[in-house]
Amino acid sequence: MTAVGIDAVEIWTGNLKLDLPGVFAPEKGEDPEKYTKGLGLNASSFPDSYEDIVTMGANAAHRLMERKRLEPDDIGRIDVATESAFDNSKPVSTYIAGCLESVFDGDFHHANKGERKFACIAGTQSLDDAYNWIRAGRNRGRGALVIATDTALYARDDPGEATQGAGAVALYITEDPDLVTLSTEQGYGSADETDFLKPNQQFPSVDGKRSVQVYLARMREALVDYQSVAGELHLDDVRFVPFHTPFPGMVRKAAMLAYRHIIRDTAVEDELAEEIGRQPRSEAFETDDEFRDALREYMDGLKETDRYQEWYAETIDPTLTIAREVGNWYTGSVHVARISALKYALEQGEDIAGQTLAVGSYGSGAQAEIHTEVVQDGWKEEIEALNLDEQLADRYELTWDDYEEIHDAHNHDMDVDIESMTAPDGEFVFGGWGRMGERE
Ligand code: CAA
Q1: CA-to-CA distance for 83 and 239, rounded, in angstroms?
Q2: Which residue's C-alpha comes closest to atom 3 of ligand 1?
Q3: CA 293 to ligand 1 centroid distance, Å
Q4: Which of 148, 178, 283, 361 could form a disulfide bond with 124, CB atoms 3.0-4.6 angstroms apart?
Q5: In the annotation, is 99 catalytic?
Q6: pLDDT digits over 169-178, tens only?
Q7: Catalytic residue among 10, 51, 62, 83
Q8: How is residue 282 annotated by DSSP?
Q9: Domain ranges of the chain
Q10: Using CA atoms, how far apart are residues 356 and 340, in angstroms rounded to an integer?
């Protein structure tokens, strides 16, 4: 069976930067460590006035096509995942295809285009759709372009305001890919939840505390479901676990689940079994409450052990490096986590070809998905080609006044027109509602 997966990735950050400990915390009267240590964030990427989901998505896709020397004829499918869409009929992929057609020879008339919505998990769902399309043999030798693009902004003074972000990730899905192959097996956890909603409104209505609990509940179900189809993975079998990262502090909690459910550490379980006289598994307890108490005790003890802390530092922490500097990119977030991990391996001089990633995607509303990926021989070249460090360093640093102005400008209800804070440099810029971006 032909291997299918991600051949290449590109990333595009919003051109502005909001410093959380330096600018945001003093204005909010909060301890900067609430953001840097509690949420795990240093900064957010922010879109300038000429940037939106179309321009950021088109810019990421443009870089990817140029670097891989792709023409429109090589691409048979364009799917955009977003939870920041502005059009309930025409998909964002058509706007992005229009941008790309203005600079490449040929057109995308042959390409199937769509838009995927299921909060932040939509990016992974589009990846799954592309995988299925190729595996079904419907691609006629062409690859699929998946673009996850969002302006993840919250209303001012919403608790989520500290976790904002804006950016896009473009993924090229093919047979025999250079970066990672995807597993056939997946695990799901899905339920009707109302913790995070955007019913025809610019900023989400969020029950933040509950959203954290729902994330963990669905992720736990997905992990158990994954085990039921793929069997257990062991500690040494998984190199990195990239999770959807609304903020790194969320992943700190999810990592405990992964450790407990995917990577069953029998040494730690035996230790606990000795302490409590039983194996920490549900069948060993008479009531659910008894089991829950034992499990909580186990989890609390676990995170203090050297063994867990070493595993976290090597397997989870490297997935969070980029998120710390850019905030939440909603649909792109788990794909940023994958890039972050691979970039870490590259910087450490580690060869991870043939190693496994266990990827935990999540979308409010709510659904979690676990699948695995195997890193391919071409991974180093792909990650080396990214210019992420330059993009991050080139962002304009917002003052508090700038921030208020640009936040209002992106609030479409307020209709504020402002001068941009940076000058576009060979990139697509916002052409007005309903129009594709133009390249400047
Ligand atoms: N020093 C160190 N740590 C500190 C601190 C300090 N001075 N002050 C607070 N902290 C810690 C807290 O103890 C807490 O850590 P734990 O959760 O580990 O206990 C952490 O910092 C955050 O503090 P609070 O819980 O007080 O923060 P908050 O209530 O202001 O905001 C939030 C947290 C409600 C999750 C908010 O960020 C939010 O609403 N975010 C948007 C929703 C979201 O991202 N939910 C995540 C799951 S849903 C999802 O994943 C989909 C998606 O992308 C949106």
Answers
A1: 30
A2: 38
A3: 24
A4: 361
A5: no
A6: 999 999 999 9
A7: 83
A8: G
A9: 4-439
A10: 15
